[in-house]
Design brief:
The protein is an alpha/beta fold. It has one domain: Rossmann fold (3-Layer(aba) Sandwich), CATH 3.40.50. It is about 30% helix and about 20% strand. Strands 6-5-4-7-8-11-10 form a seven-stranded mixed beta sheet, sandwiched between helices. A hairpin with a 6-residue loop joins β2 and β3. α8 packs across α9. About 40% of the residues are buried.
Length: about 300
């Protein structure tokens, strides 16, 4: 398993997947305090472009075990505050998808989870498809009658092409983001767009908490981007970046506080989110104003187009 990796090998500086730069060890004390997976991997930071990534990476066979049936992306929140915030978040995603689709378009989601977004887009008259690593997530999507492939994007074989490929908090989970983005380009019709949303390791909360940042989400997040490295990834795949923005969200701050309380033993909950977490989301939201002035919020997004 990944946690048993040779510590000497882990200390060797690997090469960055984006620029080839030497990437010395940066984080050594990452722990899963959400789902309590035992495996632990060190993280390295590229000295040239700033990309942060786990090394060595977990194997393809290990990945599904890091996503339990109660994983947040396909287990709707029961707390009314969380349900309201998640509902707003999903509504924003639907609006983004529809904004870039033609009147009758083809939409593909990488990391489709339980198919909630695909179902909403299909209801507007569009053709939809997706891919999801979790078997549990796929079964929930299949129950909705959705065409979702069980596996990774690299394992999918299809001749279909899409107007929009949607990737919300997915690129940080894949084993090879460069190969994944190359496959995304192949899926797009000429002139089609990809929407990518991912944590911003350059945000104030990420810089403050470092390896104890709540959005390290260890060991499920394998890659950590800044706005510059995300743009580099997209342009390296032959895509033209048309829009970049910060997404308002206090999740980074809230999970960092929860992580700090758990590390100190003051919160002994074994649930992914403690009872006070929704209150943190609301109470810490004004910090986004500080975030924007000091490096951007913890969530960032980009829209890039395949040249016609």
């Amino acid at each position: 398993m990944g946690g048993a990796a040779n510590p000497v090998a882990a200390d060797l500086a690997p090469r960055c997947a984006l620029c080839g730069g030497s990437s010395p060890l940066a984080w050594t004390d990452c722990r899963d305090l959400e789902y309590f997976v035992a495996d632990r991997f060190p993280a390295h930071r590229c000295g040239s472009c700033g990309l942060v990534f786990l090394h060595p990476l977990p194997t393809r066979a290990e990945l599904p075990g890091y996503y339990p049936p109660g994983y947040q992306n396909f287990d709707p929140p029961r707390n009314p505050i969380s349900a309201f915030l998640v509902g707003r978040y999903h509504a924003a995603h639907l609006a983004t998808a529809l904004r870039h689709l033609p009147p009758v378009g083809a939409f593909f989601e990488v990391g489709a989870a339980d198919g909630a977004l695909l179902d909403r887009v299909r209801a507007r008259g569009h053709t939809v498809g997706g891919v999801e690593l979790s078997r549990d997530g796929c079964e929930r999507a299949w129950a909705k009658g959705l065409d979702v492939f069980h596996g990774t994007l690299e394992e999918l074989r299809t001749d279909r092409r899409y107007d929009v490929v949607f990737m919300s908090h997915v690129i940080e989970h894949v084993l090879d983001p460069v190969e994944t983005m190359a496959r995304v380009r192949e899926l797009l019709k000429p002139g089609g767009v990809v929407y990518v949303e991912t944590p911003n390791v350059g945000s104030p909360d990420a810089r403050l908490f470092g390896e104890h940042w709540g959005l390290v989400h260890h060991p499920r997040h394998l890659w950590f981007f800044t706005r510059a490295t995300l743009r580099r990834l997209l342009e390296g795949a032959g895509l033209v970046v048309e829009r970049e923005r910060w997404e308002p969200n206090s999740c980074g701050w809230g999970l960092s506080v929860q992580t700090a309380l758990r590390r100190r033993g003051w919160d002994r909950s074994r649930r992914p989110r403690s009872f006070y977490y929704p209150l943190l989301l609301v109470g810490l939201l004004p910090l986004n104003l500080v975030d924007v002035l000091a490096g951007g919020t913890a969530f960032m997004s980009a829209v890039a187009r395949r040249p016609a």
